[in-house]
Amino acid sequence: YAHDKLMELFRKYTIIGGMPEVLSNFIFNRDLNTLAKIYERLIVSYQDDVEKYADTPLKENVLRHIIGSAFQYAGQRITFDKFGGSNYRSKEMGEAFRTLEKTMLLKLVYPITHVKIPAEEKHRRSPKLILLDTGLVNYSSGTQKQLFISPRIDEVYQGKIAEHVVAQELTALNHSVRTRLNFWVREERNSQAETDYVLPYEDKLIPVEVKYGASGRLRSLHMFMDAAPHNQALRVYSGAMKVEDLRTQSGKSFKLISLPFYLVSQIEKILDRLA
Q1: CA pair distance 235, 220, nearest whole angstrom
Q2: What is the pTM of this model?
Q3: pLDDT (tens digit, 9 = 90+) per residue, 214-263?
Q4: Contact 53/99 with Cβ under 8 angstroms?
Q5: Is 233 helix (H, G, I), strand (E, B) or coil?
Q6: C-alpha separations of 95 from 62, 81, 105 in Å
Q7: Do residues 149 and 163 make contact, with C-beta atoms less than 8 angstroms apart?
Q8: Sequence-separated contacts (24+) of 208-211 with Cβ below 8 Å
Q9: For residue 77, what is the enclosing H or E element?
Q10: Are the C-beta atoms of residues 233 and 257 closer than 8 Å to each other?
């Protein structure tokens, strides 16, 4: 009964983000236009802080370049070599990215190719880039206005903002800083099959897709389920919660649990209930 209201509140949260000063200002003023200076100041302060983490002038420059460019690539797979239109090579760029990952400004989400625990990350394949805060991403990429006028989070910026905020919600579920967020790709190099994320739950790796539309169109998720030793899959979208009994193309039956964005934080409880 509260779905529409909760989706509207989550959409506002996705637009604004969760930085304390930003939230405080919005609660007091209720005006998105007053937030621009705060976002800008936060990004500049991150760039000013690089001297703490750089031991050479070159690393300082690389770190500043990443901070200035990274928000445009949020939720996307990236390559280190010449990242963000620079001339910096893979080695120096990779080292700088790993430094910023330790500061928790960003997260590199690496793929796995297996459907069983343990999840073995493939560091030779391109990672997805997830930033500290979706509000900062929206401000830097200019998507705040689109989100404000769109009725659905998952249709803005080719769905990347939706994927990004779900990554943040899934990261918040982790009970240990050592727990990594991953996504799945097929072992074959030329394959296009890819699920947005995988969620370790008990002794399973559960695929998570962030998509709107018909259940049968989730082709990569169906491929994952064909190989998986269990029968549970997750879809996050703007619709109401539902559970569907589906079959893959090869005939394997599985349950697709579709959750609205505001219930991602409750995934483990929902899986427990449906077990």
Answers
A1: 12
A2: 0.91
A3: 555 788 999 999 999 999 999 999 999 999 999 998 999 999 999 999 99
A4: yes
A5: strand
A6: 9, 11, 14
A7: no
A8: 208/166, 208/170, 208/233, 208/234, 208/235, 208/236, 209/233, 209/234, 209/235, 209/236, 210/154, 210/159, 210/162, 210/163, 210/166, 210/235, 210/236, 210/237, 211/154, 211/159, 211/235, 211/236, 211/237
A9: none
A10: yes
**Ramachandran class of 158: left when φ > 0, alpha when ψ lies in -120 to 50, beta otherwise:** left
Query: For residue 243, how many other CB atoms are within 10 A of its CB?
Result: 12
Contacts 24+ apart (CB under 8 A), 42-51: 42/136, 43/67, 43/68, 43/71, 43/136, 43/140, 46/105
* Chain mean pLDDT for the chain: 90
> Are residues 254 and 246 in contact, defined by beta-carbon separation less than 8 angstroms?
yes
**Regarding beta strands 194-201 and 204-210, do their DSSP bridges make them parallel or antiparallel, or are they unpaired?**
antiparallel
Distance CA 154, CA 152 (A): 5
Q: How far is it, in rounded angstroms, from Cα 199 to Cα 267?
A: 10
Please say whether the beta carbons of 228 and 115 come within 8 A: yes
DSSP for 180-217 reads: --EEEE-SSTT---EEEEEEEETTEEEEEEE--S-GGG
CA distances from 246 to 29, 62, 218, 220, 233 (A): 47, 48, 11, 14, 10
Beta-strand pair 182-185/194-201: antiparallel
- HSE-CB for 118 with a 13 A CA cutoff: 5
CA angle 111, 116, 118 (to 5 degrees): 75
For residue 215, the model assigns a pLDDT of: 53
